[in-house]
Task: structure prediction
Amino acid sequence: MSMSAARGVPGKRERLVVIGGDAAGMSAASQARRLKGPDELEIVAFERGHFTSFSACGIPYWVGGDVPERDQLIARTAEEHRARDIDLRMRTEVVEIDVAGGRVRARDVDSGAESWTSYDKLVIATGARPIRPDMPGVDAPGVHGVQTLDDGQALLDTLAHTRGRRAVVVGAGYIGVEMAEALINRGYEVTVVNRGSEPMSTLDPDMGRLVHEAMEGLGITMVDDAEVTKILTGGDGRVRAVATEDAEYPADVVVLGIGVHPETALARAAGLPLGEHGGLLTDLAMRVRGHENIWAGGDCVEVLDLVSGSERHVPLGTHANKHGQIIGTNAAGGYATFPGVVGTAVSKVCDLEIARTGLREKDARRAGLQYVTATIESTSRAGYYPGAETMTVKLLAERRTGRLLGAQIVGREGAGKRVDVAAVALTAGMTVEQMTSLDLGYAPPFSPVWDPVLVAARKATKAVMSATS
Result:
């Protein structure tokens, strides 16, 4: 009996097919294998690239030299996965999903050979693709996106063979500011061109202004409210400058840090449900809505925002690994759920730490929420203790109830991870008044007597009381 004929027949070994060999896909495959042995479950995984189970979040730090070796970013090699009885097929791209037939069509990237593989259960973990604007010169040598280890290696090769030391980063989100730091560490003169009014659009503009000022203080040239219209090339065809409507910025290398879109072309062609942001829609078990034996996770899905109640696209490795664990458990016959996110993220540029969780002001307005804000300046340690660094904390709270809606923190050492306190408070549905009573750890080397997050909560509580009196 063929595998296709055996689908759903009791007592037959099932086949789990995984599309995508990074965080979500291989976490799902590994968890399923932990729960079911090869006699019960065959696992076939397809990865179109050269690497599996790698940390995309670590690429800027590898490029910048903080992480010396590429292989340090690989959590588990293809050989290690295969040793666990996972049939991992590298350099093989799935080009079609036949939902009705329960099969996928895959193409060998190097030879072009194609074949069909049937499945009983399917995991879609196709990730996200960097936004690459349609403009003249965007494909010129010296212009790089950064999403995979192959991308990072290509950029390093360019840096090693480029005589000039001028770099332009297009975009000032997480990727943009992290790549700006990497290039500064490599000794480049860095210009960041950003179409927004301030860098880090994941923050409110007043907090983004702090990032702008700090980046300029690090020697980075910041160009806000400017959209790149074309990339100019020299006689040798290589990039020589980035152009906006008003100016040109010389460049020996250009890094695109504009963001990513869910990679869901396969899913769209297969008729699977997509959300407002282009990501796959799943239920709490990460099962694709309306499809009993198909799951999806990682950067290709949309997730529930627990604060606003809406669906969001949040491409982070933390979520992808959790999705994979949940999918693998469910695909192996267990039970697990992913309730949603509050939107926590942290980054840095040189010694500046940037963190946020929950809603920005414009998110709250879009959700129809009335709110108050509170912004304070404090220090990471007791002011008298050596090494105390300043930070700015901003909280949003619902106007009538005082429920915490969001937090943003910008500061030096010790600032960024403080956002986790707010993330827990958001998940628990706490009010800012309840936060003021949190029993946080204190000693002068770690915090002032009143932790900066609690100082902000006290101020936000006063703002709520004033607004409702």
The CA atoms of residues 374 and 460 lie 5 Å apart. The first helix runs from residue 3 to 6.
